[in-house]
Each structure stands twice: as structure tokens, then as C-alpha cells.
Amino acid sequence: YKTVDSTLRGNLGPETRGALTGSGRRLAIVAPAFPDAGRTTMDGRQYVDGVALEQTAFARDPKNPIVTGYVMERMAGLEPTRFQVFDAADNGELDEVVRRIGIAEPVVWVGSPGLAAALSRALSSEENAPPAQPPLRARKVLVAIGSLHPANDAQLASLRQAGAVLVTLPEAADPEAVAQEVRAAFARADVVCLMSPRSR
User: Fold this and answer.
1) Which of 19, 43, 139, 185 has CB atoms 3.0–4.6 Å from 192's, for a disulfide?
2) Is residue 21 predicted with pLDDT exceeding 70?
3) Range from 7-21, 66-80, 92-106, 163-177 carrying the lowest mean pLDDT
4) Rounded CA separation 149/142 (Å)
5) Are 88 and 112 in contact (CB under 8 A)?
6) 46: enclosing H helix or E strand
7) What torsion, rounded to 10 degrees, do the Cα atoms 38, 68, 9, 52 define?
8) What angle do CA 197, 111, 128 make, to 5 degrees?
């Protein structure tokens, strides 16, 4: 599962390409609707409370302004043959996407909490229930924050309070230097937060 923001912020195409490459899977199923939060997809276009995404406050995001609400355009950087975009105006339509594709298909699911919940509902049904296994335990957790949204301030405060080590990317980051800094941070803590620069 590749999670994306339901307002299409971030680098959706390159991140999905990375998920496909890393998983060895051929096709991404993209359904970014999150109906419980008022985010829907109609005719391949994202809406927030019935307003086209590019006409909302998200169009003025200081770090990643949204100039188009068309999901296909926000997936730039990934070949169109590698993904399919699905509309959904409510949770029932997300459930139908999962039913049509099939829970066992070797695809990368790309969506917000709306699609994640639909997958969870499909997995919890009796015929799809996986065999019981002991839960996996994470030894190390990397949290990546690439947004300047105010909600991140409270999340960062919670991470700091819990003892996480914070690593802020410089404006011009050398990938190997950043990787070394993250490895060093993991030597000091089990949770590391990697943040994009805190300015535009």
C-alpha cells in the first residue's frame, strides 16, 4: 500500500514509481478519495467538499501549491500504462474498486485512508481473512514529513516528547550525507523523523 494525501500534495508519480519498483509489481491502482473527510474523485478530478481541488485553499499551499485537481496530471513522472485511476464519491464505491480489482491481485494500492479502510473491510471478510500469524514488531520507525501543514507542528511535538530524533533536510541535500545522518540518528533512537526544510 502506498499512501498519498487526499488533496494530492507531494510527489505522487515518482513515489508510486518507487513503490512499483521496490515491490516488483507492474500496476498501481490509484483511488485517492477520502469520503469521510469530504474528499471525492469524480471523472478523474479531486474535490474537497464538492469544490474542485485547484479552487480550494490547497491551491495556495506554501510548499506544494496544487495547480490541477486531475489525478492523472498529479501522477506525472509515472508512465500512464503503469497505473489506473478510479473515481469514488463514497465508501461504497471504494469497496467496489477493491472488489473489482480483487484483494489478492499483485498490484500496488495507492490511496488515502479511504482506500486503506476499504482494503481493511475486504480483508476482514470471512472469505478473504488471511491465516492467523503473530503480529510483526517494528524495531525502527522512520517518519517522513514533507508538508508545512499546521497539523505537523503537533505531530512533531509528540515525536519530540516521545524521544524521537529529528533530522531536517538542508535546502540542497546530498543523499548520501542524509542517509549517513539518518543511520547515525537510528543509533541514538528507535524513532527518527526526517523533515523537509521548514521554509518555502
Assistant:
1) 185
2) yes
3) 163-177
4) 19
5) no
6) strand 45-48
7) -10
8) 140
Burial class (CB in 10 A: 0-12, 13-18, 19+), 162: exposed
40's CB contacts (< 8 A; 6+ apart) are 33, 46, 47, 50, 88, 89, 90
Alpha carbons 73 and 148: distance in angstroms, whole number? 23
Tell me the pLDDT tens digit for each residue of 120-178: 999 887 565 556 677 778 889 999 888 777 778 888 889 999 999 999 888 877 889 99
Q: Residue 165 and residue 43: Cα distance in Å, rounded? A: 43
**Nearest Cα to 194, choosing from 154, 147, 158, 162?**
147
Assess contact for 129 and 122: CB atoms under 8 A.
no
Show the cell assigned to 30. 490509484
